[in-house]
UniProtKB/TrEMBL annotation:
It is found in: Cell membrane. CDD domains: ABC_Carb_Monos_I (cd03216), ABC_Carb_Monos_II (cd03215). It is a peripheral membrane protein. SUPFAM superfamilies: P-loop containing nucleoside triphosphate hydrolases. Belongs to the ABC transporter superfamily. This is ABC transporter ATP-binding protein. GO terms for cellular component: plasma membrane. One of its GO terms (molecular function) is ATP hydrolysis activity. It comes from Ureibacillus yapensis. PROSITE patterns: ABC_TRANSPORTER_1, ABC_TRANSPORTER_2. InterPro entries: AAA+_ATPase, ABC_carbohydrate_import_ATPase, ABC_transporter-like_ATP-bd, ABC_transporter-like_CS, P-loop_NTPase. Keywords: ATP-binding, Cell membrane, Membrane, Nucleotide-binding, Repeat, Translocase, Transport. Residues 5-240, 257-502 form the ABC transporter domain. Pfam families: ABC_tran (PF00005).
Length: 514
């Protein structure tokens, strides 16, 4: 059997924490091999060992049958291994071509030859049907396009073994479909792919085999076609997983959040939320469905006080909160699970305990006469860590940056829910999380609703919006264009609404959304 990559008995530890414990992974030539595991199971660590970012304490790596020592990413590149990272490694104000050649610039007579490089980028882009403009600036292109630039970066360096780390975490459903096609095309061209993911739908669609790791240990490798999502989920978390969250019918009561004729502009002064009306009641979950970039971010930022409102009114429990300072808004009863946990949710270099206290550090019982009681901080944090199953090496003292994305997210959710807000805003609450964590978070959101709280859910995942919401408001181009009940619509109809078509128009010829 010809393997292009063999990782045999790999062990990697950080201090006393064993991230990879005797793991074996074998990649065949021309296959898409999925690496599946919960958040924090050790998937990215294993791939960072293969890419030369970490050195293993034990085990051997063979590339095309030869034993190798991959001491840094340049060695990996020379061996034909390329990695598309989950958090893109791109310079925002550089062009596509400048980013692709960074570190391996082609020179002519001592000057960088951008023209030749752009031609090569264009040729690669056409060969793999990536449709990337070599001269576009990174800051002006979509997340999906930025990811294609990352793929081109590896191809430009001649990689024939590609590692994709959680490649669909930030993509829209349409971009995910396109990425799957790109991956299949890469395989046709003789490449081999390792796909790190916990999205079972994608694994079933594109992978040939799956290696499952749980809590740092290899559980086994299965042929995808001989397995099922239920089986894979069970291997991944070690128990049965419920995909559809059970819930009783909602019992909506008084209005908690009322938004009237809201207009909000982006940083460039362009209106992104336009004359928007929305109502969320106590005891219900209203989901906002839409393709990324249709005003969702500006809407959340306006409600939470992070962005000024241009026009209109936001009312919470009958009191106006428009343009109040963020702390005033949180104190008036708003909890916020932000869409970007790194930018707006956590201070990554703080210990976990301090992050959990971020919303309450200046109040009793944590603070008295301006002095913080750290014993109390850690006691409260420990309770949340336990309740929300936040896994970390050193508990409250763990530096937050060292936690996996899923565990960082659980810490934020614990912090916000435990404050018991009247309105909980959950923006992309399960982005990049595994099925076990998703199930846990959905239960918490429904619990909040059942406790008589109002929940506003913003998500790009259609099945999440359908599964969790009691009512779905579809946002398109800054307007709420329709409101539907999940049980009275289909994913297909919702997809059409998200693309800006009203359902009545779909029955007409060539209807246009006004």
């Amino acid at each position: 059997m010809e393997y292009v990559i063999e990782m045999l008995g790999i062990r990697k530890q950080f201090g006393d924490f064993v991230a990879n414990d005797n793991i074996t992974l074998q990649l065949k030539k021309g296959e898409i091999h999925a690496l599946l595991g919960e958040n924090g199971a050790g998937k990215s660590t294993l791939m960072n060992v293969l890419f030369g970012l970490y050195q293993p304490e034990a085990g051997t790596i063979r590339v095309r049958g030869k034993e190798v020592k991959i001491t840094d990413p340049n060695v990996a590149n020379k061996l034909g291994i390329g990695m598309v990272h989950q958090h893109f490694m791109l310079v925002e104000n550089f062009t596509v071509t400048e980013n692709i050649i960074l570190g391996s610039e082609p020179t002519k007579m001592g000057t960088i030859n951008i023209k030749d490089a752009a031609k090569k980028v264009q040729a690669l882009s056409e060969k793999y049907n990536l449709n990337v403009d070599p001269y576009a600036k990174i800051e002006d292109i979509s997340v999906g396009m930025q990811q294609r630039v990352e793929i081109l970066k590896t191809l430009y360096r001649g990689a024939d073994i590609l590692i994709f780390d959680e490649p669909t975490a930030s993509l829209t459903p349409q971009e995910i479909t396109e990425l799957m096609q790109i991956m299949k095309r890469l395989i046709e061209e003789g490449k081999s792919i390792i796909l790190i993911t916990h999205k079972l739908k994608e694994i079933m669609e594109v992978s040939d085999r799956v290696t499952v790791i749980r809590k740092g240990q290899g559980i086994g490798t299965v042929v995808t076609a001989e397995s099922s999502p239920t089986q894979l989920a069970e291997l991944m978390v070690g128990r049965q997983v419920v995909f559809k969250t059970e819930k009783i019918a909602p019992n909506p009561k008084e209005i908690v959040l009322q938004i009237d004729s809201l207009t909000v502009a982006d940083n460039r002064g362009v209106d992104k939320v336009k004359n928007l009306n929305l109502t969320v009641r106590a005891g219900e979950i209203v989901g906002i469905a839409g393709i990324d970039g249709n005003g969702q971010s500006e809407l959340i930022e306006a409600i939470t006080g992070l962005r000024k409102v241009k026009n209109g009114k936001i009312t919470l429990n009958g009191k106006e909160i428009t343009n109040l300072k963020p702390r005033k808004i949180t104190e008036s009863g708003v909890g916020h699970i932000p869409q970007d946990r790194h930018k707006h949710g956590l201070v990554l270099d703080f210990p976990l305990g301090h992050n959990i206290a971020l919303q309450t550090y200046y109040k009793q019982p944590i603070s008295k006469n301006g002095v913080i009681n750290y014993k109390k901080v850690n006691e409260i944090a420990r309770n949340i860590i336990e309740q929300y199953d936040v896994r970390s090496g050193e508990g409250v003292m763990s530096i937050t940056r060292s936690l996996s994305g899923g565990n960082q997210q659980k810490a934020i959710i614990g912090r916000e829910v435990e404050r018991n807000p009247d309105l909980l805003i959950a923006a992309l609450p399960t982005r990049g999380l595994d099925v076990g964590a998703i199930e846990f978070i959905h239960r918490r959101l429904i619990e909040q609703r059942d406790n008589g709280k109002a929940v506003l859910l913003i998500s790009f995942e259609l099945d999440e919006v359908m599964n969790v919401s009691d009512e779905i408001a579809v946002i398109y181009d800054g307007y709420i264009i329709d409101t539907v009940k999940p049980q009275e619509t289909t994913e297909n109809e919702l997809g059409l609404l998200m693309a800006g078509q009203s359902l009545q128009e779909n029955t007409k010829e060539g209807g246009q959304h006004e």
